[in-house]
Write a structure and sequence with these properties.
Largest sheet of chain B: 7 strands, mixed
Number of helices of chain B: 0
Radius of gyration of chain A: 14 Å
Number of helices of chain A: 0
Oligomer: heterodimer
Shape of chain A: globular
Helix content of chain B: under 10%
Largest interface: A-B, 24 and 24 residues
Number of strands of chain A: 12
Distance between the termini of chain A: 41 Å
Distance between the termini of chain B: 37 Å
Radius of gyration of chain B: 13 Å
């Protein structure tokens, strides 16, 4: 069965600095990987996904993520953090075979400090 | 294009009661997934429906059930509520493809007293 690990419950970064939110996955076969963001009292919003092709994926709000097959990682990055990026971030994975559900990590809370 | 609509947004129940939550997916989407979100456990997968058939089911007790109607709208039901069922219940719709992203509703926040 597929699984996702987000090793950090909380990430703090100063505004203007680069940010990284870590994610590792486990799945049989080639993974389909996703990042979502959740603002307080809201549902999840899709940021970006990796299906195939270029290992660097660009998404919404200036975020990008790098797929690393050998390290089974899909870290979320942004070159310059904004205070408005403060939110809860979820990584998710789905296996390629059959109709498997999208499995989420426990989330990482990002705080960007002015 | 209207997004995913979940009702009710907030509700309070007491132990032993049952609850029904509703989800209207994005027009044209035939698949609906349900997740339970709690602070300690993150998002846990409940079940997924595609064209009125349950396609996947998570590891939840039989008190949790769901269904999907011919218009793709979905409901989930929790019977004999327990304090631990207090959570944000999120519905997501998608096209049904493995490569497609999920589109989430705002959620239904259930408090069990």
């Amino acid at each position: 069965a597929q699984s996702v690990a987000q090793p950090e419950d909380q990430v703090n970064v100063a505004e203007g600095n680069p940010l990284t939110v870590k994610c590792t996955y486990s799945v049989s076969g080639n993974p389909y990987l996703f990042w979502y963001v959740q603002y307080p009292n809201r549902g999840l919003q899709f940021l970006l996904k990796y299906i195939t092709g270029d290992n660097l994926v660009k998404g919404s709000y200036g975020f990008e993520a790098e797929f690393n097959k050998s390290q089974t990682s899909f870290h979320l990055k942004k070159p310059s953090a904004l205070v408005s990026d403060s939110a809860l971030y979820f990584c998710a994975v789905r296996g390629p075979s059959g109709n498997t559900p999208l499995v989420f990590g426990k989330g990482t809370r990002l705080s960007v400090i002015a | 294009k209207a997004g995913v609509t979940q009702t009710p947004r907030y509700l309070i129940k007491t132990r032993g009661q049952q609850v029904t939550l509703s989800c209207s997916p994005i027009s044209g989407h035939r698949s609906v997934s349900w997740y339970q979100q709690t602070p300690g456990q993150g998002l846990q997968f409940l079940f997924e429906y595609f064209s009125e058939t349950q396609r996947n089911k998570g590891n939840f007790p039989g008190r949790f059930s769901g269904r999907q109607f011919s218009n793709s709208r979905s409901e989930m039901n929790v019977s004999t509520l327990e304090l631990g069922d207090s959570a944000l219940y999120l519905c997501a719709s998608h096209s049904g493809s493995n490569t497609g992203e999920l589109f989430f509703g705002e959620g239904s926040r259930l408090t069990v007293l």
